[in-house]
Structures
1.
Amino acid sequence: MKNTVVTIRQAKEQGEKLTMLTAYDYSMAKLIDEAGINMILVGDSLGMVMLGYEDTLSVTMEDMIHHTRAVARGASDALVVADMPFMSYQTSVYDAVCNAGRLMKEGRAQAVKLEGGREFAEHIRAITKASIPVVAHLGLTPQSLNAFGGFKVQGKSEEAARKLVEDAKAVEKAGAVAVVLECVPAKLAKLITKQLHIPAIGIGAGADCDGQVLVYQDMLAMFGGFKPKFVKQFAQIGTMMKEAFANYREEVAAGTFPAAEHTFKIEDEVIEKLY
Ligand code: KIV
């Protein structure tokens, strides 16, 4: 069944948990889609896990469009959500609408995600008015890394927790179709989830959110040595890949690959004429 902004809202109303994973290319999107995951996020995490930057700040609109197009070709049932990269919406409401439009028109996304709460309510309202569904991202918002002074759990003090609750209500009021809560204490995420009519998708926000999102390299143990506290490694694909690459290297060196079954034949008489 095709996932849409309507079906994800219905899932919340019916108490069905939602799943979201990141993808950045066609083949991974196809595998995730075939596994029945509800939403694929083309996250600006691509800057770190695909392009090797130390944070997400250098990701461009061109990067996002290029990867979103590939993902959209691989996703038939999953709802494709594309991240608005740093400085593609912060500069003005006009920029926000134009760049959200590019992600839909050129990238073939079905929704866009942007980081921020009430300070971006006007942007969310304007993008929504252009018939583009918006997912808001609250809590640890990686594009604000320098303002936060590092990657830290958000909303721990009464003031910060109150601000998060109010931000969540403000983005819902502005028209957001869902909200991502990143690195928010579980009890606070539960309270926010209960107060919203739109789905709250958690990452490091506990089990009481309406759904969960993970970066696929994290959940497959494919990315570096660092494992955030909130990540569960569902498979050790990184180790399996390294073993396969090493086996390939050894078999090529030993001359056991390619074997006869990997080889194309030609009649001996044709070859003899060439000597
Ligand atoms: O960019 C990303 O992958 C994200 C998720 C971590 C939610 O925003």
2.
Amino acid sequence: MVAKNSTVAIALEGIGKRFGGVDAVHDVTLAIGDGEFFSLLGPSGCGKTTTLRMIAGFVSPDTGRILLHGEDTTSISPNRRPVNMVFQQYALFPHMTIYDNVAFGLKMKRVPRGEHAERVHEMLRVVALEGLERRHTRQLSGGQQQRVALARALVNRPAALLLDEPLGALDVKLRKQMQLELKRIQTELGTTFVYVTHDQEEALAMSDRIAVMNGGRVEQVGTPREIYEHPQTPFVADFIGSLNALELTVGELVGGFAVMRLGEGERVVVPVGPAARVGDAIRVAVRPERVRIDTPDALPPNGGSRLEGAIAEVVYLGMYTQFHVETRAGRIVCHRLADESLAAMIPGARVAVAWDPEHASLL
Ligand code: ATP
């Protein structure tokens, strides 16, 4: 599945790779759209780098095919593929100027000399390094070095740029700045980006779509919003942000929703598919920031879920405060912005928590 109105730039068809006895990547099928910012996200060792290296041609798959713009490139050498790669260690030439580092890519591809100056300058403008052509790369900050590496990789106008944790070496503040920069550069050039990261916030901030990987397999593919709001597996739910997961048994089925009544004015409501049956054991997920908290009389029952309980813990986290509430369905964590009037919300206080039906999903 590709994003709407888009042609496929990179198709992975059932690719797999074993190292020794380990399935590093297993039966991965993905269609990455032309001009898409696509991220491979997952914990260390989940197979994202191996997948990227197979697209680049540095690792050959044991099974499956890789198509770039419809052409089977599975057995084509890396330097003949229309892709380029950017690494965490930028591997710039320290004795060369910025200009020469960027022009190096053009030399390798035997682009006529007459075109170099214009193309290098154009790319330095895109990465916001205009005017620094004559500087040596050892005189640059980490962020500037990363921009040179990007310019060098993009100057050949690859059909796709493959990025392996390119911001990993930068400090947090610079990293956030460079995330926005990368997104801007990608939008300006319209180049397909395939981005490997273990940082969920980074993937959510930049990507058009994300593939969440676990143990060599793709668990879910979707837009940041789909992945965050509607995780389809317990792994994805757990890996992307924090989440409440309630173990319940379907009590009633009413118009596409399962309803579990847990007490007077207390119930959990969740959208379910046609296969759901009364008596099924289910796991209901709801994000902490979707849970409202107030005194029981201030949160009367309405269409969604509502539970009563006592505050077990209050954790101040600056931007927001985290409340842990013990309810009949288990402990529910809720995040509220710090400027709300929450003075009465102290440990031991009786409260109600509530959330709308569309904010609950089934794991
Ligand atoms: P990280 O973020 O730590 O780089 P990753 O998700 O990119 O992790 P991969 O580097 O793709 O994961 O590795 C997937 C699995 O394959 C791991 O178990 C890893 O140890 C193993 N692996 C990767 N490359 C090789 C290799 N050349 N030889 C043997 N095993 C390998």
